[in-house]
Amino acid sequence: MYRIPNNSLLLPGAQKAFNIGENIEMIMIMEKTAREMYAKNREKIMQKARSSNSGFFGVGFYNNFSVLLSEKSTRPGIQWDNNPEFHFQVPCKRLLNYRYLDELFTEALDNYLLTGKKFFVKDE
User: Fold this and answer.
1) Cβ count near 66 (within 10 Å)
2) Nearest Cα to 87, choosing from 102, 64, 104?
3) pLDDT tens digits, one per residue of 80-118
């Protein structure tokens, strides 16, 4: 991205446009990182989802590049002891497929990037 050395020479609206451009660039890096983190943990998430036929668990993404899975719960609305950057809820189903899991992740990530909301529950 092109930078003007002395931002004080910019008109007020131009400075705001540059800041928006920088924020978009940071979001794109964050999205790529989140997708890489998900790809590395996708199989572990699927194994936990298929280990039971009922309940839910959460998948939390953290700023330190880690992904944690919560304990299984019988109720939707996973509680976290720590504060993930964003997280989503996965149903435990023996027949859960990768396409549905990928859809859950993509919707949660899009929701986080567009609205800033940290938690996503898909309406059935």
Assistant:
1) 11
2) 104
3) 777 888 889 999 988 889 999 999 999 999 988 888 888
Confidence category of residue 123, pLDDT binned at 50, 70, 90: low
By DSSP bridging, strand 56-61 and strand 67-69 are: antiparallel
Residues 6+ apart with CB under 8 A from 2: none
Single-letter residue type at 82 = N
pTM for the whole structure:
0.71
Q: Which residue has the tokens 């400075």?
A: 15
What residues contact residue 118 under an 8 Å CB cut-off, 6+ apart? 84, 85, 86, 87, 112
